[in-house]
Structure formats: structure tokens, C-alpha cells
Amino acid sequence: MHIIKLKDRNEFNAGDGSMLREILNPKKQPLLISYSLARAIVGPKQRTQRHQLMHSEVYYIISGTGLMQIDQEQEPVKKDDAVYIPPGAIQSIENTGDDPLIFLCIVDPAWQSAIEKVLE
């Protein structure tokens, strides 16, 4: 049994500017999964840098409000919204509220630095 406590995972500034805690990644842990899972935070009135991943990604909004941009489309997002980001899409998310925007990131196959390109 693997139980990973978020508080035990190191927080770091990700390449896109969000604060990230990587929870699960089979490239770094002995797990029989194909995806990776991380928790991200974007501060009030902040935006991640435009970036793209070669793999698909899903954001699940835990709290806060934001504006999700995927390629040329923009849509508001809020708690309990899930956003599918196709492989190769240019993406960013802006926190439009006064509280932190907190969301889970699921990348499948698992995230690794070689699959991400920061465009700004």
C-alpha cells in the first residue's frame, strides 16, 4: 500500500511559474501506473506561462477561480471543474480571484521535463 501525504512532498516553482508538489510519478516512484499526479497553486491575479506538453493533461480545480486558455480558446473555471488539455496544445491558466487557485494536474503518460516546452 502506498499512501503519499501532500505535506511530505517538496513544493517547488514549476517551469510554468506555478507552485507544484508532485504527488505520484512512476518515473520517480515504484508505482504501476502510467500517469503522474501533482498539485499546483497559482497565486491571486497571477498566470502561468504559456507552455505545451507532448502528452495529454487534465486539470481538476480544487478551489479558486480562473481563466483557462488552450490554444485560441478561453473559458472561466472554478471549483469542481475538470479541463482536458490535448497533447501539443498551448496552455496557460490565470487566477482571476483573490484567493489561491489550487488544482490537480494529471499527465498521461507521466510527466517528465523532456515532454514540456515553456514558451515565454
TrEMBL record:
Residues of the Cupin type-2 domain: 42-107
Statement: the UniProt record of this protein carries the keyword Isomerase: yes
Source species, domain of life: Bacteria
Pfam families per record: Cupin_2
Keyword Isomerase recorded: yes
GO terms of molecular function: isomerase activity
InterPro entries: Cupin_2, PKS_Associated_Protein, RmlC-like_jellyroll, RmlC_Cupin_sf
Keyword list, A-Z: Isomerase
Listed name of the protein: Mannose-6-phosphate isomerase
Taxonomic placement: Bacteria, Bacteria division WOR-3
